[in-house]
UniProtKB/TrEMBL annotation:
Transmembrane segments: none
Ranges where the Luciferase-like domain occurs: 2-100
Gene3D superfamilies in alphabetical order: Luciferase-like domain
SUPFAM superfamilies: Bacterial luciferase-like (SSF51679)
Protein's name in the database: Luciferase-like domain-containing protein
């Protein structure tokens, strides 16, 4: 996360250096996966086959991920996996580091059964998104 926070600071500095009002800058952040379950253990174990399949794919070798285990990926990657409270907490850590107002969240998880994916998205929309919108308002979507 710190690598990207440093880039955002740099871009904000360049924005100002070119004469723009810092208040006009809008930052976006992306989250490369979403899997919300009522409890953390179910989320981690439900996402494990998805992670393992990806790590066995050519894409993992091409992307040269710095993570070797699911636990490392969940701790250091931008994937939102966990209970609603954990997803809110992780999003908040990113928001604190980046100060972003736009978020891209990958809702379709390749390899996840459709019913599980649908339940995850529904939980995100009903249990997570209202808290995020209330806690982190955005000029873009006001």
């Amino acid at each position: 996360m710190e690598k990207y926070a440093g880039l955002i600071r740099h871009y904000r500095e360049r924005w100002v250096a070119y004469g723009h009002d810092p208040a006009d800058a809008v930052v976006g952040a992306g989250f490369n996966g979403l899997y919300v379950r009522k409890n953390s253990q179910d989320a981690v174990e439900g996402y494990r086959p998805v992670f393992d399949a990806f790590m066995d794919s050519p894409g993992a070798k091409h992307n040269q991920l710095p993570f070797r285990t699911l636990e490392e990926f969940l701790a250091g990657g931008s994937v939102l996996v966990g209970s609603p409270e954990e997803v809110i907490d992780k999003f908040g850590r990113y928001q604190e580091a980046f100060g972003h107002e736009l978020s891209g969240v990958s809702l379709e998880v390749p390899g996840l059964p459709d019913a599980e994916n649908r339940a995850s998205v529904e939980s995100f929309v009903t249990d997570v998104l209202p808290v995020l919108r209330a806690t982190y308002p955005s000029r873009v979507w006001s």
